[in-house]
Amino acid sequence: MTVHRNEATLARVRRTLGLIAAVGIVFGAVGLARGLAGQGVGATPWAGGGLLATGLVALALRRRARAVAVETDGEGLVVRNLFTTRRLAWADVDGFEEGRRRGFTLAAVRTRSGRRHALSAVGDPGPVARKILSALEAERSRCR
User: Fold this and answer.
1) Whole-angstrom distance, CA of residue 144 vs CA of residue 139
2) CB neighbours of 105 closer than 8 A, spacing ≥ 6?
3) Domain 69-143: which CATH class?
4) What is the pTM of this model?
């Protein structure tokens, strides 16, 4: 099994999620405590609780970001993104491409049915992404 990922992009994603988690947890805990104690003007526990929940979700996503990758073997590939994991057989894969989706430039796997699935592990457009896409295309050609 071969694992493909753009470590620089994923490190930046983990740093950003870590910052969001830290801010959310610290300020959420303080806000929740102040809201429950009734301190401050208009203090409610809901705002602190919302920030705390946001921080905990970001912390969980930061942990999940470690698993983001495109894993390939002789049968196909497994695409692990932040929120989804999808397994595709080589027979279903039509190719790989860089394109735009929801306003973002990213890499995707194109299936024979015409659907595209994002490859978060490839990361930002550039030489590293092109190298990963070339390696994926070479594996696809070799395994068909």
Assistant:
1) 9
2) 98, 99, 124, 125
3) mainly beta
4) 0.81
The residue with greater pLDDT, 33 or 102, is: 33
Residue 104, Ramachandran bin (φ over 0: left; ψ between -120 and 50: alpha; else beta): beta
Interval 51-73: pLDDT, tens: 999 999 999 999 999 999 999 99
Residue ranges per structural domain of the chain: 2-65, 69-143
Question: Is the dihedral angle over the CA atoms 129, 78, 117, 10 positive or is it negative?
Answer: negative
Across-strand partners of 3? Answer: 71
DSSP state for residue 2 in the 8-state scheme: E
Please give the C-alpha separations between residue 52 and each of 16, 24, 27, 40, 69, in angstroms, as whole numbers. Answer: 16, 5, 7, 18, 28
Residue with token string 């070339």: 134
DSSP labels, 70-136: EEE-SSEEEEE-SS-EEEEEGGGEEEEEEEEETTEEEEEEEETTS-EEE-GGG-SSSHHHHHHHHHH
